[in-house]
Design goal:
4 copies of one chain form a homotetramer. Chain A is α+β, with helices and mostly antiparallel strands. Chain A has 3 helices and 6 strands. The first copy, chain A, has helices at residues 12-21, 24-28, 60-76, and strands at residues 32-37, 40-46, 83-94, 102-111, 116-127, 130-145. Chain A starts with 11 loop residues before the first helix and ends in a 5-residue tail after the last strand. The A-B interface holds A 19-20, 22-28, 48-56, 59-62, 64-66, 68-69, 84, 86-94, 147 and B 19-20, 22-28, 48-56, 59-62, 64-66, 68-69, 84, 86-94, 147. Strand 3 (83-94) of chain C pairs antiparallel with strand 3 of chain D.
Chain lengths: 150, 150, 150, 150
């Protein structure tokens, strides 16, 4: 279903990994990159009571945060080396309670663009019993020139 | 702008406070309820490096999580005592980087309904220099009968 | 990709066709049903200057209207005989100008539910040169008991 | 609530009126501009059986089309003279059936930007009995350089 995308930066995976490593929130979530391909990124978060809503399930805020990150990084894999990615907007439908041992978010590029990249993604709660589709996202990302910190 | 809503449960504030206290994620965020009125809830989160994206600002996941909670609890204030609230879907526009000493989310009911309650809200980054509008949300909430834990 | 859905009403196609035939707007658009299957509906609209935006392309309002209808009817195919469908909310990304001889909307059920059905869909502009993906939708539908007109 | 915006083109109203006059769909709807101010536009559509859904109410496609146009033109009022406006994405909650003698859409700019303008709006069904809030929209608009047709 995903068209084959040609990355403009051969080091796209390094860039994604370095950016994610700087995210305090994803460290708080113990989030891990599971896959980084051109136009598609997967992120996983293990269950923790620190990440729950009032019934002990994963909080929708966790689901949406990693869906947003998976989509944003999927967009970043196709950007030029000197760009960073910002979320313009996103919309999410929550399909089922996120009950499981871990939460898996997949994000992919639907339409790359010069200024705007449209992404979509899905989140799954993973447990012994298998995988349950818990959320779907549609998001608009933009690239801006990386600030030179030097 | 907000119509005056009549709560169906006089203890609506207790219910919101007890539910929020059970949320592991909001404790992780050190989130605090600032205001609970019929149809409107305010939540605040102090800045922490544990809540950042790659540039050191508040992560959009934090902004969206507390906007979602503010909207959900705004809906809950108008529900019957035996109901709890679930997010059906939400959509957010991110308007500016969330740079500040704290993040403030306001959620309010736009249209209460028997099955579905539509809410909207706004998030602000607060610093010495004042308050900056960083995000706006539109969300659909539903109420379901509270599980009897006894 | 679409799970096989079992319709609860064997006459689901008749119901969709009769409902669509009562829609004044879809007649104004000269819209035609191209396919009605359990959980998936396709609608097509031929180009007309009466349906354009300021540059002579299909107006986004046409694209969104038939995406909404395709999704709504996809949801209706899985509902009980005495139900009709209402759109709770929808969100659309417009991916490219809708230039073509006709506009094709596909809607499908992502998750059927007792009260709420989540659908997604895509629109394509069709011309001699082929098919171009012009929009994608994510929508929430609800079913309500049919009014007895008798 | 709306901040006072300073238009960059003193002829913003002429531009909006000329653009709307070129829209085939809005002519089909017999839509009329009710108000054009910097950052805010109102559009009205009289009831017609040609614009209905299956129950004889205004079709959601009409509501969304004029909300989209009101928001897009609100964004256009703040753009430079040589720009035209495109909808990037939109999301709408439908709050009540659109039953009335006319449908009124108000769109306003929430945050103008160099590349992207975020708008919101509301639609009302107008009848003898008064005005009913039937839909709310949140939308992202972009400006692109006007094509020279000469």
């Amino acid at each position: 279903m995903i068209p084959a995308f040609e990355p403009r930066d051969p080091d796209f995976e390094v860039r994604v990994r370095e950016s994610l490593a700087r995210q305090g929130l994803l460290a708080t979530f113990a989030a891990e990159l599971r896959s980084v391909r051109p136009g598609a990124v997967d992120i996983e978060v293990p269950y923790s009571p620190a990440l729950t809503q009032q019934d002990g399930f994963f909080h929708a805020g966790v689901t949406i945060a990693i869906l947003d990150s998976a989509c944003g990084y999927a967009a970043l894999t196709l950007m030029k080396p000197d760009m960073r990615v910002l979320t313009v907007e996103l919309k999410v439908n929550l399909l089922a309670p996120a009950v499981g041992d871990s939460l898996h978010a997949h994000g992919e590029v639907l339409r790359p663009g010069r200024n705007l990249t449209v992404c979509r993604g899905d989140a799954y709660a993973i447990s012994d019993g298998g995988s349950k589709h818990v959320a779907t996202i549609l998001a608009t990302m933009t690239g801006i020139a990386e600030l030179n910190d030097g």
